[in-house]
Design goal:
The protein has 2 domains: about 290 residues, Zn peptidases (Aminopeptidase, 3-Layer(aba) Sandwich); about 160 residues, Glucose Oxidase, domain 1 (3-Layer(bba) Sandwich), CATH 3.50.30. It has 15 helices and 18 strands. Helix 1 runs antiparallel to helix 15. It is globular, with a radius of gyration of 25 Å. It has an 8-stranded mixed β-sheet with strand order 1-10-12-11-15-18-16-17, sandwiched between helices. About 45% of the residues are buried. The protein starts with about 25 loop residues before the first helix and ends in a 31-residue tail after the last helix. The N terminus and C terminus are likely disordered. Strand 16, helix 12 and strand 17 form a beta-alpha-beta unit. By secondary structure, it is an alpha/beta fold.
Length: about 550
């Protein structure tokens, strides 16, 4: 695929080509945003400090708190108002300092592995034979009895190799953007199915953790879901929840080396391993923090336009594309808008979330504190689950901030250029977005789709009836190489992409903050009706009550 041309540093005269897209005052401000964002950009400096200097930012870890404090101090130093860290209850933190896995037989080899988050440490170096087991169900857990003492267990399935001819790096083509714009009727909501899967995973984790410790297993080894040596990570053990069984040390091994061990075991050749993991649980502080700061508005300062990105990351790399890139872009947008020396009509609030990787916990906490709440669960089965996995309760109870919230814009799909916005099935939002993005057409950021997108921090807003949106971004190698992997480092960020994104975010925020009318809202979400019971053929429906 041809590479997109570099972003021009010239500030074109937009007034001639876009007479109906924005007012003269807006066009003047948008031109100044471009000049600042392209000529005096600090976005790479911000991204470099977050990744190289602070490093990985797992929620609850010391590095995450360092990141919160650095972002707050930086925003305050630029003159943003009320820069603050807002706490919420999270659980226990975790960090690691060492992970070494070696094969000693049948031939010596260094195996590159990394620990899953919240895995316990080994007691020094542990040694034992590799053993392949299934851990897909509670029945599999029962089969471990009497078989795994002193063993290092390979618990993942054999990796499936991707075709080496498949591209590792992609951008949105014009055809792909056209396909995105074409609206498809939404599929049936899958949140309840996701919650049920999460509940079953937790049940399996708890049973496996307790059994593995009781049976004397030394450790587990899982396989990376990326190949080409990239180690893609997640969590094990407590997953940050207090009071959960830690289990045994659990590491992830690169797909190619994992496949080698499985081949040896399948051939009946004994594999001897050595493993050392040093890890620390941080239990003295159970709170995590979101970092926020404001650019105060003028006549309509009580209304709030927001932009945000999640500050937390996984621990294998340095959290560059997920999501130091988004944080640096939103911070740079804040700096650009502050440099204008102008007061927007509405207040613009910049938010940097923690706990996103554990279930959008930081943005959910903000919504619950400022915008809307739900009743506490009363079902004992629900109360037995962590709050993050409980069913939504009804009705939604708006707080004072619900009425004054204007719109929230989120950035969290890697380090690629912005290509437009998802309108989340909000027809009125689409009309506004098309107008606000028109001045960005020459930067390739003018696509608007009615489609929903999920799995990131705009959803807690959307779920309580508030405008919350995600930017469309180029994929780059986010889904093939960097997402949650040890390769998620500064080296995979590109200056031109992040500069373009920062200018696009700042431009959208400025226009949203100065839009003369209200922002259109979708209908308030209502409790879904329970599914009708299935009837046998020929059976009449129950009479209406």
């Amino acid at each position: 695929m041809p590479r997109l041309p570099a972003v021009s540093l010239l500030v074109p005269s937009l007034a001639l080509s876009l007479p109906l897209a924005a007012s003269a005052a807006d066009l003047d401000a948008l031109g100044r945003i471009r000049a600042e964002g392209f000529r005096d950009s600090q976005v790479m400096t911000l991204a470099r400090h977050l990744t190289d200097a602070i490093g990985p930012r797992l929620t609850g870890s010391p590095q995450m708190k360092r990141a919160n404090d650095w972002v707050r101090e930086t925003l305050a130093g630029w003159g943003l108002a009320d820069a603050r860290n807002e706490p919420y209850e999270f659980g226990e933190g975790w960090s690691f300092g060492r992970c070494e896995l070696r094969m000693t037989a049948p031939a010596p080899a260094v195996l590159f592995a990394l620990p899953k988050a919240w895995t316990p440490a080994t007691e020094g170096v542990v040694r034992g034979p590799a053993m392949r087991v299934e851990l897909e169900s509670l029945e599999d857990v029962e089969k471990l009895a009497g078989r795994v003492a002193g063993k290092i267990l390979f618990v993942g399935k054999a990796p499936e190799r991707r075709d080496p001819a498949d591209p590792m790096f992609e951008r949105h083509t014009p055809e792909a953007l056209e396909e995105l714009v074409a609206y498809d009727a939404p599929a049936e909501r899958g949140r309840e199915a996701w919650r049920e899967r999460a509940r079953k995973r937790r049940e399996l984790w708890r049973a496996a953790n307790e059994r593995l410790v009781a049976e004397g297993a030394l450790a587990t080894v899982d396989v990376s879901s990326f190949d080409h040596g990239a180690i893609r990570l997640g969590s094990a053990g407590t997953n940050g929840l207090t009071g959960e069984a830690e289990g045994v040390p659990s590491v992830v091994l690169g797909a190619e080396q994992y496949a080698r061990v499985l081949r040896l075991l399948d051939e009946g050749i004994e594999v001897e391993l050595e493993l050392a993991v040093e890890a620390t649980f941080h239990r003295a502080e159970t709170r995590a923090w979101n970092t926020l700061a404001d650019l105060p508005g003028g006549a309509a300062r009580g209304e709030v336009v927001m932009a945000g990105a999640h500050l937390d990351s996984w621990h294998g790399g340095t959290g560059a594309t997920d999501n130091a890139a988004g944080v640096a872009v939103v911070m740079e947008a804040a700096r650009i808008l502050r440099s204008l020396g102008r007061t927007p009509l509405r207040t613009i609030r910049f938010a940097f979330w923690s706990g996103e990787e554990q279930g959008l916990l930081g943005s959910r906490a903000y919504v619950e504190s400022h915008l809307a709440t739900r009743p506490e669960a009363t079902d004992p089965d629900e109360l037995a689950l962590p709050r993050r996995w409980r069913r939504e309760t009804w009705p939604i109870r708006p707080l004072a901030g619900h009425a004054s919230h204007y719109a929230y814009f989120n950035l969290d799909n890697g380090g690629g250029r912005i290509r437009g916005l998802y309108a989340q099935e909000n027809l009125g939002a689409r009309a506004l977005f098309e107008r606000w993005l028109a001045p960005l057409a020459d930067l390739g950021a003018a696509t608007v789709t009615m489609e929903n997108t999920s799995s990131t921090d705009h959803l807690p807003f959307d779920r309580v009836g508030l405008p919350g949106f995600q930017f469309i971004q180029d994929e780059r190698d986010y889904g093939t190489r960097t997402h949650h992997s040890h390769l998620d480092t500064f080296d995979y960020l590109e200056r031109d992409d992040l500069m373009q994104a920062a200018v696009a975010v700042a431009s959208v925020l400025w226009q949203a903050a100065n839009e003369p009318g209200p922002f259109p809202r979708k209908p308030m979400p209502e409790e879904p009706a329970p599914p009708e019971p299935k009837r046998r053929p020929g059976e009449a429906a129950a009479p209406a009550q």
